[in-house]
Amino acid sequence: MGSGLSARTYTPVSWDAGRGRTRLLAFAHGDGPGSKWASGLREGDTCQFFGPRRSLDLADLGAPVVLFGDETAFGLAAALRDNLQAGGALHMFEAADITESRQALEAVGLGEARLIARGVGDAHLAAVEAEMLRLAAGGAQFALTGKASSIQRISRALKAAGVASSRIKAKAYWAPGKTGLD
Ligand SMILES: Cc1cc2nc3c(=O)[nH]c(=O)nc-3n(C[C@H](O)[C@H](O)[C@H](O)COP(=O)(O)OP(=O)(O)OC[C@H]3O[C@@H](n4cnc5c(N)ncnc54)[C@H](O)[C@@H]3O)c2cc1C
């Protein structure tokens, strides 16, 4: 996408090779090539893509599963809903705009997801951490995605509380100042 054909990574919400159909859910957060592409899409537009490729392997996560992420992980949550062996997951998302995020989540059938507003200096993460530790005590397994620094912080807190690494799967989707994480 963009004039130099930069690549950006998105999660297929569904992938139907037979019909040649896939669905993505993209967060237009700014004016990078991915955001511009998503904001400007019109019916009938074409684009180049390749994939899908292996990424987070969540197949062996057992219930209860907690998915933490942000706007970039709404698509993963929608994909997971239909694919988790052990039934549903509990979703917790940090987000810049709660009203807009709620609308997007409801549109993909994830109206029950918990949303927490990003705070100055990531102050909101203290509440997320506390909730994650509470869920960990109940035996939950964790998929952490989205902003790299949030994932690091929560992962560190879980491990410090004795949660085994095998109960945590993590994949950074973006980091301030970096482009095209994969
Ligand atoms: C495996 C994987 C799966 C992904 N799946 C999805 C998906 O399904 N949907 C989706 O929306 N995104 C997804 N992402 C994240 C997406 O690829 C990045 O957000 C990407 O940077 C967007 O490209 P851009 O051109 O808009 O911004 P870029 O040009 O890449 O970034 C410009 C700057 O914007 C900032 N930035 C980047 N992303 C964000 C953000 N989300 N919020 C705030 N600031 C940001 C950073 O400071 C960055 O330096 C995924 C990433 C990975 C690695």
Tell me what you see in this structure.
With 182 residues, the protein is an alpha/beta fold. It is built from five helices and seven strands, in the order ββαβαβαβαβαβ. The chain has helices at 33-40, 74-81, 98-107, 125-137, 148-160; strands at residues 14-16, 21-23, 65-69, 89-95, 114-117, 141-147, 168-174. The strands form two sheets. Strands 5-4-3-6-7 form a five-stranded parallel sheet, sandwiched between helices. β3, α2 and β4 (89-95) form a beta-alpha-beta unit. α4 (125-137) crosses α5. The longest helix is centred in the last third of the chain and has 13 residues, at 125-137. It is globular. 28% of the residues are buried. The protein binds flavin-adenine dinucleotide (FAD). The site of flavin-adenine dinucleotide has 28 residues, from α1 and β7.
